[in-house]
Amino acid sequence: IPSVRSNVPNGPTDQATPLGRGYATFASDSGHQALLLGSQDGLFGLNDEAVRNFGGDALKKTRDAAFAIIAARYAASPLKAYFAGGSTGGREALAAIQRWPADWDGAVAWYPAWNDAAALLAGHRVSRALAQPGAYPNPAKRLALYDAAMEKCDVLDGVADGLIANQKACNAVFDPSTATLRGIPLRCAGGADTGDSCLSDAQIGAMNLVNTPANFRFSLASGETQYPGFNIWGADTGITSRTSPLQPTVTFLAFGTAQPARVMPANAPYISVLTDQWLKYSVTRNPLFDSLSLDPENPGPWAGRISALSTQLDTSTDISAFAARGGKLLLAHGLADVLVSSRATEEYYRRLQVAMGASQVDSFVRYYEVAGLGHAVSSVFNATWDSL
Questions:
Q1: What is the pTM of this model?
Q2: Most exposed: 63, 158, 233, 298, by fewest CB within 10 Å?
């Protein structure tokens, strides 16, 4: 359970935490305790109630219990209630205001995995690509790709500052197969793996796949049909030579230090370990299942189970009841996130505008994108925000 004395995601470090500012704070473990793999652990998937709790049921249980304790202690209920979370916590924030709009006055959702089943399938697609022979780039090659993208895209926002703010323009013009780094082609000669300063055709193919959407050729009960690609051009996917104290965390949350394999290494990409656990315990419920054998876009006999799980993991974008009661929503996402795509959050915001109209959405929602920020942290730029 997160400490109730901690800050909100990416909260300001120059002032007291919410508890110190007078808020009554509460948190939960989403209905299960993680084991050795921490946030990647999927063993709870063998228990139906734990799966439902993780999908959102724990949110209501925790909120109601916390409010009862607060009322017993202070003889009064809170005047306002806010939900703050990031990643799965961001998904929970959006699920809370969608499923129980009367319970919340506001929500802060950082890099939210709001369509989590779709995100897991897309992440598994990335994992399978990186598992192919010769496709996994070592940290030196990741640096070469990063530097080449910076050479091409840093100035597209009008300022050369080591950050890519115009990510859409970068995605449109950067091609690793034709890019150069300090005047030398980024692609290895002949497409073979000839050294750390270039990428082979196998590695370029894997990186291009990361940048493209996963398109599901089966029906998800949640209604999701695809998951967008990731902004990999200019993202730190695990450049271990950097000296930032946050670099180990960045690497852990990105491509790790080991290639995905049938027996999944603990230091493989974060998403590889996570999806390996999800497929073994929540989907197939077979700890010996070869997760890399499952095609995430066409999972065959497992399509029905995945579809059923999507109703718990993918959150509806209909928050009209929350808006009607005067609720406020703050969304934020780092553009260099390779674990939960900022393009997915853009899609969430777009759906709100389509359903409610841009002017109404603007009356209760704000969405901010942060250049250079990865999933929660960055080796080049870390944003703090007094979201409360």
A1: 0.96
A2: 158
